[in-house]
Amino acid sequence: MILPLADVPAPHIDYKGLSPLIALVGGTVLVLMAALLRGRFVQRSLLPLLTLGTLGAAMGLSIWVWSPGDHRPIVESALEVDALALSLSLVFYVAGIATVLLAHRSAALSDAGAGEYYTLLLSSVTGMVLLAEAANLITLFVGIELLSIPLYVLCASQVRRRASLEAGLKYLVIGSVGSATLLYGLALIYGAAGTTSFAGIDRALGDTVSLSDPLLLTGIALACAGLAFKASVAPFHQWTPDVYQGAPTPVTAFMAVATKAAAFAIFLRLFDSALLSAQFQWAPALAALATITIVVGNVGAIAQDSLKRMLAWSGVAQAGYILAGVVVGTQKGLEATVFYLLVYLLMNVAAFAVVIARERVSEWGDGMRALEGLGRAAPWLAWPMTIAMLALAGFPATAGFIGKFYLIDAAVDGDYAWLGVVIVAGSMISLVYYLRVVAVMWMGPMEVRLPSLPGRPRTAKPVGGWSPEADAWAQPEVTLVAVACAAATMFFGIWPNPLFDLVADVGTSLASLVG
Amino acid sequence: MVLRDIVFFLAAIGALAGALGVVMLRNPFYSVLSLVGHLLSLAILFLLLSSEFLAAAQLVVYAGAVMVLYVFVVAYIGGADEPLGPAVPAVGAFGPLVAAALCGELFFAFIGSGLEALDSRGAHVSPGFGSPGQIGSLLLRNFLIPFEAASFLLLVAAVGALVLARRRRGIDDEEGGARVDTIGHARAHGSEPAPAEPVAPGVER
Predict the structure, then answer these.
(1) What are phi and psi of A154, to 5 degrees?
(2) φ and ψ at A184, to 5 degrees?
(3) DSSP 8-state code for residue A473
(4) Res A12: pLDDT
(5) Which residues, in sequence order, are CB contacts of A109 under 8 Å at separation 6+?
(6) What is the pLDDT of residue B119?
(7) How far is A132 from chain B (nearest CA, A)?
(8) Does domain B1-77 have CATH number 3.30.1330.40?
(9) Interatomic CA distance for residues A425 and A427, integer angstroms
(10) How far apart, in Å, are the Cα atoms of A1 and each of A4, A5, A63, B132?
């Protein structure tokens, strides 16, 4: 029998639109191959540089591909390279670059092997980009798995520390439950709508499928729960503090910003584009989840002594704020969500960079006391942390304020004014724990008294767990990340127009949304 | 037609009983065997839906390859007399409640849409639907990107498994200071990071 090979025409592939993904996959394989070379130079310098180069190239290509308002699905409607996907891709690349810098001296890097560590990081970024560009349910699921599986391993990559292994296992088990729930939900949505493409689901909902179809509603509920696991939205957030605390801190920083952005990218795509016709069905549920998340996250953060746990709870609360932008289902909500994800990246990476710098030298580890007296001892670390905390709390003149303002504005505009009130109330509670960090840094007791030598009084830098390495510039790359992110937070707080221009492009990317 | 119905109900009961067995049986080995029974019943259901290729793939891949792996792992680790850990009290009380709610919701969803379809002939499928040719064409055309991404995912998962499995032996003698890891070079705990070992051959595929 002659196989009818000729009747299968090759799909049209838009290589330009696909180029950032090609760069990422190619770079990942390159890093994996280069890791075969032994030698200090390759392992310590070449691999990080290759990883940074890959991320940089992908970022450059994303900017090259950028064309606002153009949403043309590529490769047989598997991917949608629009402004929403590209702008969130920038978040993933910047988070990836920051993670490479932050992890440069981390124990996890040598435990896991540099090549493998960077390979996993790059493949997770690839999964996130795939997820943000997903235009059908299959790509969505493969993307979320490609994002998660490397992260499970990265969480456990500090294999000699029990907490890290525990974090990896916990994340694996709970993440798998989340993925399974999501997959079940997606299968039911496919069953109801009869198609896997987002555009097709949108058409089917307006046309053949009844909005009260129990199959569809169950599918939406399960998909929502599955995504809530990934975005650590309460009550699916239980894993967050343990995993954030146990995982190596650079990985935690990456998870906190990039995974959250990826989860919200797909929240936006699935709910605000494919399922927008069913908004009356899902919006009240999501609004309730957002409210619970804001309350639980903010209250949970108050009692934390570990900075990583505190940031984890604060991340839960922030997920609630961001969810408000998804709930309203308007163009403004979309813009506000993307804006907040962009500034969330800056504030959180700055905070985590300071935690990493202190955790490596302080005897208190990631405890609150590690920051004691930091204001006087290491202002280059104390200022970024202060700015990050104030921005997360939403103080004016920081980007966090504008982001929160944008979200509240979107909520009020979309007839969810009460959700705006909840955001404000949540922010007020959050001042308790954000300001406590600032207070510890600038008003912390000076516990270390060094005997002064005769003739020359000795000025020590008595940070909690004092050591010569407490100097901020002993780890220049970490301090650099902290200072750069904090400076950007301030810059966009005072002059947010570049970000406004960017999200204005994003606003037009989902055709289903009205202005 | 009657024979079809009889086979359907036998396979459906087999699938349900197998799934229940996986959860209810205390011995992990029996659980795995029960899962094999469940997957075989599913393959029969696929046959009834005239998707022969899917049924064959189910048999070869799941009941054949994947389950053999499960059986090996369970047999290797043992655990036949390992009690399943005690549930946390508070969560233990809350869990069945939530599970029952989800079960009820799914029940309504399926009864709701299933009853309508009971008397109909089901969805219309074109003659070649589910044939290897069509699946191949779908994989290489419409779902080319997910297909390629899935293969990339397998590569990444292999790398991840390697990262986790490689150092395992060093964990227990952590307190012992210097140790010899599995690759064979000694190094002190907390020393300078050594160059990573080459990846095992075959991973790059």
Answers:
(1) -60, -35
(2) -60, -45
(3) G
(4) 79
(5) A103, A117, B193
(6) 63
(7) 13
(8) no
(9) 5
(10) 9, 12, 49, 15
Residue A434: alpha-carbon gap to chain centroid: 20
- Assess contact for A270 and A140: CB atoms under 8 A: yes
Residue labelled with tokens 């891949």: B61
Q: Locate tokens 């070869």: which residue?
A: B60
How many other β-carbons are positioned within 10 Å of the β-carbon of residue B69? 11
- A79 strand-pairing partners: A74, A134
- Inter-chain touch B149–A38, beta carbons under 8 Å: no
What 8-state DSSP symbol labels residue A459? Answer: -
Asked if residues A101 and A480 have their Cβ atoms less than 8 Å apart, the reply is yes
| Residue A385 to residue A349: CA distance in whole angstroms | 10
Point out the residues of chain A with pLDDT beneath 70.
1-8, 68-72, 444-472, 511-512, 514-515
pLDDT in tens, B129-182: 778 888 888 888 888 899 999 999 999 999 999 888 875 554 444 444 444 343
Question: Taking CB atoms and an 8 Å limit, are A75 and B145 in contact across chains?
Answer: yes
Distance from CA of B123 to the nearest CA of A (A): 10
Instruction: State the SS3 of A155-188.
Output: HCCCCCCHHHHHHHHHHHHHHHHHHHHHHHHHHH
Quick check: A38 and B204 CB within 8 A? no
The pLDDT, as a whole number, for residue A7 is 62
Contact A489, A397 (CB under 8 A): no
B172: which chain A residues are within 8 Å (Cβ-Cβ)? none
Q: Which residues of B are less than 8 Å from A221 in CB distance?
A: 105
Extended beta strands in A108-252, E state: none
ipTM: 0.88
